[in-house]
Fold this sequence. Notes:
Shape: flat
Structural class: mainly alpha
Mean pLDDT: 82
Radius of gyration: 18 Å
Amino acid sequence: MVLHSQKQGAHGKATYSFQREHRRENVKDRCHKIAKSIVSVAKANGWGIVLEDLKGIRDRIHYGRKMNRRLHAIPFRKIQSYIK
């Protein structure tokens, strides 16, 4: 079995590591922006924010392969922690 990083050549692992870090920072940035917009809308309208228990949310919902992939990619806990 040949690993993906072995096919990349001399700089494969470094490139893969850079891409992974870039993807992680991109997700973090998006979550922060989403949480910030939720809080700003709530403040502007004088609303409170109620967060429910999100345990098992991925187990309860089955929409099909493509939608499940999109749903399971959402870092609910990270967004919840940014809102708090």
